[in-house]
Amino acid sequence: MNKLLLITVVVFSGCLFSLDAQKYDFNWLLGYGITATSVSGDFGITLFDFNQGNLIVKPVPQCTMDFIFVNSIISNREGKLLYYSNGEFVENGLYQRIIGAQKLSRSSNSYQAILFLPHPDGSDRYMLFFSRDTGGRVDPSAVYNNVDERYFLFSNENNPQEGELVFRDSIILIDTLADGRQTACRHANGRDWWILMPERNSFGYYKILVDVHGPRVIGKQILMDRSIEGVTQVTFSPDGRYYATQITVSATVGAFTLIYEFDRCSGDLTLIAKQNIPGRSSSAGISFSPDSKLLYYSVADRLYQCDLNASDILASSILLDSIDVIPRWGLNYDKHLLAPDGKIYINSKFASPVMHVINFPNLRGKDCQLIRSGIDLTFNNGISNMPFYRLGPIDGSTCDTLGINNNPWAWWRYDQDSTEHLKIQFVDASAYEVEEWYWDFDDGITSSDTSPLHTYSKNGVYEVCLIVKNKNGADTLCRTLYIGVVSNSDPNKNMDFQLFPNPCTSVLIINVNDYLPSKMLMTIYNLEGTEVLHKRLYQGSNVIDVEGLNSGVYVVQIKEQGIIVRSEKLVKM
User: Fold this and answer.
1) Entry pTM
2) Cα-Cα-Cα-Cα dihedral sign, residues 168, 68, 111, 236
């Protein structure tokens, strides 16, 4: 049995609720913390930072928390890291533990055992729901233990940087709840939150409404299908229309996929598709495309995609990949997460040093560009449990009562072609009912496509702007692209590099920030000046396999168009 609690972290600012920014999921933490006794290079925490539009991978040596199973994190609406937890402790954005907030989930090792949410009143307050086995039973004859759902309150009023525990243990609900199925969806009013909590091995779903007065149970829906126990991931679609569950039970029973329509006004579910996949076990994951038209689900070594607009949704499933050869450290498709850059990231259950990525999840079949093991990591990985934050009201519905408008919010990323450096794929990741797109590439060419492919005629500095519009207004986001503009007189101008970890064991990561190379080459030399490794670099995070190098001291040299732009000593352990 589990105990579900809620932690509220408060940073009082007196602000009113609005839909702007909402960058609560712009930082992810994953990995195993480094301690004095750590001997493996696989240990350490990695930060996924989405604040620049494109993913940047960074080491976080200050963080020593272990994210083995449980992981949730939240930033403020401007994208500054605030709080994170592994179900045992809560730490702040300064990587300091919050006194009194420890041993939260205790016996739970479920991925979705905890969940951060911003408070609906629009202030800088944050809630953390989590589950815990109480060890007791209301009815001695019951099969399962009791679950408490509670919340803690934290405040940053007296200490804005660190926060403090104000009070704890306000009980919301006691029952036998299923373990590790916490996720949330915006209410149709655009402000409040819904959390659905299924009873364990039963037919009931508790409907928890989180509004400006706090969380409360407003009812329980009885469904036709009993909830199934097993390895599980649950998620809502970005538009809030669907709720989906992927469950793996055992190799004998197999796995189950369940898809529901969700009523954002009432919090009710309607089952629309269900299937049993025989003979699969060990992991389960599920996610929706950014446009909420496609569903991805995985069981062990297989990943599927289905069309939510098909007359028979699950019959439209396409097998995207099946992992037939398993490396020595294990590899499968486990938990999914849709990121702010519009990609879906999928981890591997075996704590492997890689992450899979779907680059264009709005596209059908192989066009979605799934890349198995697409991201190599320095450290063993996990993935955070987060809802989709950027969802507004259902305009014109009976629940659209607060006067909140779906004011458009502009956001985008870019992908540089690996063979033609002047060819750039721009990808829209905007939110709140966008109806029109206008791109200006700063070379005299514009586009009204959602995610255009553009090729520049020459190297240069370009200010690219995206304007998004709907009936409520417009929003603009401009970024400066530096494409192949290296100078002999000032070779480091416009370039920002990060090399880590140093010392390294098996992997070296080189971040090329805010610069799109024309032909950037990385060469590693030994102290005798002999070249031992050579690789081309691209914008973003480049992962270099250095496991084959002997232990010792080396020199890393980076050239752009033949000009040395960085030279640094490297220690290989």
Assistant:
1) 0.93
2) positive
